[in-house]
From TrEMBL:
Species assigned in the record: Glossina austeni
A Gene Ontology term for the protein's cellular component: mitochondrion
Family: Belongs to the dihydrofolate reductase family.
Enzyme class, broadest EC rank: oxidoreductase
Signal peptide start-end: none
Taxonomic superkingdom: Eukaryota
Role, per record: Key enzyme in folate metabolism. Catalyzes an essential reaction for de novo glycine and purine synthesis, and for DNA precursor synthesis.
Keywords: NADP, One-carbon metabolism, Oxidoreductase
PROSITE patterns: DHFR_1 (PS00075), DHFR_2 (PS51330)
Name by which UniProt lists this protein: dihydrofolate reductase
Amino acid sequence: MLKFNVIVAVSKNFGIGFKGGLPWKLKSELRYFSETTKRVLDSTKRNVVIMGRKTYFGIPLSNRPLRNRLNIVLSTTLNKASELPEEVLLQPNLEATMKFLEDNNTLKSSIENIWIIGGASVFKEAMASKRCHRLYITEIQSSFESDVFLPKIPNDFQQIIPGPEVPQRLQVENCVCFNYKVLEKRQ
Ligand SMILES: NC(=O)c1ccc[n+]([C@@H]2O[C@H](COP(=O)([O-])OP(=O)(O)OC[C@H]3O[C@@H](n4cnc5c(N)ncnc54)[C@H](OP(=O)(O)O)[C@@H]3O)[C@@H](O)[C@H]2O)c1
């Protein structure tokens, strides 16, 4: 069974989004997101990023599609030909996306990791799925005005000690403290 990881940054008040974008401005956190979702051991492969329609269009125009990753957008209303660039895939839901990747051997063999990058309902479906391996969480230790929130993390996740690619020191930027942690779903 093909599995995926979730990556999310969340504030003390569980906010993840505000007015279509992120509630905060943290360059080093964006760099961590970019490096983590791009990282491959096999340089002939690349990773997949799966996101909801609003998350895709919330990414600044100059940065989307996210570079060096296969971008897949979940939507039941978008028209692929007129609203998304050719290299971006459109899928109706998360499970259909996973089955599509599983059934396409050429595509599957070109992929190393699959990352679920938001928003709220995609995170909810992803965290509840048996396909979910790990949650990569950035805990932002301040509250921010938000209009999109992280759904409750199910109880079957436990914190693990990650590899050296996940900094364990407290991060500080613009007087905001944050830390990276990794949870793994119990089998
Ligand atoms: N802090 C973080 O780590 C983080 C990560 C991601 C996003 N965000 C923020 O969160 C906000 C966007 O999140 P959001 O929750 O409002 O929207 P979203 O999940 O990105 O997009 C919602 C839309 O995506 C489609 N969709 C979502 N789940 C689906 C599913 N399971 N199956 C089929 N289609 C699905 C639907 O599109 P249709 O209506 O077209 O069917 C739905 O209306 C933005 O502010 C963004 O910046 C933050």
